[in-house]
Amino acid sequence: MNSIDSTIVAVAVPQLTSALAAPLVWVAWTITAYQLTQIVMLPLAGKLSDSLGRRQVFLFCVGMFTLGSLLCGLAPSIWFLVGARVVQAVGGGGLMPSAVGVISDHYQEHRAQARGLFTSVLPIGGIVGPNLGGFILEHWTWRDMFFVNVPIGIVVFAGAVVLLRSDGRRAFRRIDFPGIALYGSALILLLAALTTAAQDPELWRSPIVWGAVALSGGLVVIFLRHIRTVADPVMDYQLVARQPFLAANLYNLFFGAAVFGVSAFIPTYAVSHFGMSPLLSGAVLTPRSIAIILTSLLASLWLIRLGYRAPMIAGSVLVTIMLLLLGTGWTAVQVGPFALEGFWFLAACLTIGGAGLGLANPASSNASLDLAPERAAALTGVRNMFRLTGGVLSVTGISLALTFFADRGQGLSVIFGTLSLAMLVVVPLTLTIPDSARERRLHRVT
């Protein structure tokens, strides 16, 4: 349910622009607000899950997600829709930490395989979301894309009540609201400054905009100092800024930019550069999602034999190749007697990237979680927070960069090519992350 909603909205970006009479930079906030709220919720939900119990937090999050979906479908304006997406994300942000906590509690000796298999299920939403979104837009309205979550949410809530046993109330831990406020304010201030400047490029000369950017950076520094000195912070400083966690977090930051940021604009790229219909612009993501599922499943089963580092590097290289191909601006390619054109060319490029994401995701998830398996829920929150931070910055950055291009298709080609160079940073980062799976395999051999 969560992964469906992460992908379904991207298909509707062109329609929301006209239906709500809103500029692209504000329509992009329907994606950004969702991800930004999740960033704040992920570490909070991880701590609440450890304190109050997995079942209680999971039920609350499903209820909030379902309510937010209903409000999104009823939204009369872009501002109401953004606010409803915040409500929706309050629920969505807590689903993964509590679910991963349940799995880690129940699978002691096979945590890596169980978490990998669990993660491999998520891309099913990547198949259903864009295709369902495209079908709904072809036959109904964008509002129905949100209403579809309501019956699903009711079924999930009822199923969780019946199937998840209560793990009891645990010792309550203090919630670090100042830390949450510092991190959330830093991101909101930065994104608001970039969005405002995107509406009026003349504002780039204004000291107010640059002052907001500088203040955002200062809040990040204060946040790091805060979590280093305060008792029981929202995020453990060791898990955020100390090696080897720092390298894993930076890897997830770039990973999130490639996954969430780029994916959000693929349907827009398909419509503006390839001239596809809304239905095809959603369907073109299907081969990518299938590739993610298959490679993620295989990588999960072979994690111990392959280790973590090799799949992470191979996956990063494949994602870089995808971005390079998109950056060329080609709409067709001829290989001997075979030609890939339009839909099939874009689908082939995305499939390459999907294979890379499927390879890297189980390995990168377990590489960080294995560093402190007893803190699986908290680490999941931190890991996903960095991924979503990369996605939020990427979505806002792409929206901002597109304001400098009259042709959105051409602009996205240039942006994708630039992002391919940024992905090269991931490879040296990977080499600094401990490969505990490989170490365990070598230990068994000796």
Layout of strands and helices, then pairs:
Layout lengths: L1 H7 L4 H7 L4 H4 L1 H24 L1 H20 L4 H29 L4 H11 L1 H17 L3 H5 L1 H15 L13 H23 L7 H23 L7 H5 L3 H30 L3 H6 L2 H16 L1 H4 L2 H19 L4 E4 L2 E4 H28 L6 H27 L5 H15 L3 H5 L5 H10 L1
Antiparallel strand pairs: 1-2
Helix pairs in contact: 1-8, 4-5, 4-6, 4-11, 4-20, 5-6, 5-10, 6-20, 7-16, 7-19, 8-16, 11-12, 11-20, 14-19, 14-20, 14-21, 16-19, 18-19, 18-21
What does this protein look like?
The chain is mainly alpha-helical and 446 residues long. The protein folds into two domains: 2-175 and 234-445, Growth Hormone, Chain: A (Up-down Bundle), CATH 1.20.1250.20; 176-233. It has 23 helices and two strands. It has a two-stranded antiparallel ribbon with strand order 1-2. The radius of gyration is 21 Å and the shape is globular.
Order of helices and strands: HHHHHHHHHHHHHHHHHHEEHHHHH
Distance between the termini: 45 Å
What's the shape?
Answer: globular
- CA radius of gyration is 21 Å
